[in-house]
């Protein structure tokens, strides 16, 4: 588990999974896949969006937050598989925080990352 992660009470996690920096997890959730940094996660192995409020409180600049959102969209919302999204990300000049997100995704090969799940209003939560 990386720095600044907030885990809600009653959440369960597989013993060998990795929880990225500044992740926020809803209580009573369950996870067996890796959680990339800067995401909001809930239910069972589901990512719902970027933890924008946590990023703001941690002092991330607007530019860094926007780049993290762009990296998130590239991985989760473009319809590309992980390899294709990571290859496309090499063509974009992302700053260190967005690179941290993308590097985490690239290194999560064995267990994989939790998939994106849209909210009940059918709009992306990022």
Q: How many beta-strand segments?
A: 6
SSE series? EEEEEEHHHH
Overall SS class? alpha/beta
Our count of helices gives 4
Cα end-to-end separation: 22 Å
The percent of residues in helical segments reads 25-40%
The multimeric state of the shown protein is: single chain
Average residue pLDDT: 94
For the largest beta-sheet, the strand count, sense and barrel status come to:
4 strands, mixed
Which value, in Å, is the CA radius of gyration? 13 Å
Can you tell me the CATH superfamily?
Answer: Udp N-acetylglucosamine O-acyltransferase, C-terminal domain
CATH class placement? Mainly Alpha
Keywords:
13% strand; 6 strands; Udp N-acetylglucosamine O-acyltransferase, Domain 2; 126 residues; 4 helices; alpha/beta; four-stranded mixed beta sheet
